[in-house]
Specification:
The protein is α+β, with helices and mostly antiparallel strands and about 140 residues long. The chain has four helices and six strands, in the order αααββαββββ. It has a six-stranded mixed β-sheet, with helices on one face. Strand 1 and strand 2 form a beta hairpin.
Amino acid sequence: MIAVAAARYLLLVNAEAADRLIRQYVEGWLEGDAAMILASVSADCVIVESHGPTYRGRDQIARWVDTWFGAGGEVLLWEIRSLEVLGDAGFFEWSFACKWLGERYDFEGASAVRFKETLISNIREYATTAPLYDWEGVWR
């Protein structure tokens, strides 16, 4: 059983390659490059955005990306604040800004990422719901 688990682990992307995949995915959004985004995800990848939409499979992800950019969507900022990878999972915190349908949106969040072999197989995003502030005894 241990040999099977070890063999499975050897098929997974290493930490350096996982880091590159996450950065490639983010950079693809920043550059408006659908091919770069899609090259980082597996055929059966599932992406869950922080506000609910779920995209299942590379074909649906491609339709989402093309539709979003086609409607004038633009990622203005996607700064990775921290990034950790262990085995077939990764986690990164980020600051994000985009322009969508003429309005600017800014928020912070984090994404949990899973890898299968050499690609991203799952991304689950989480976002803050209000601006961050230092608590000083009262809530805003």
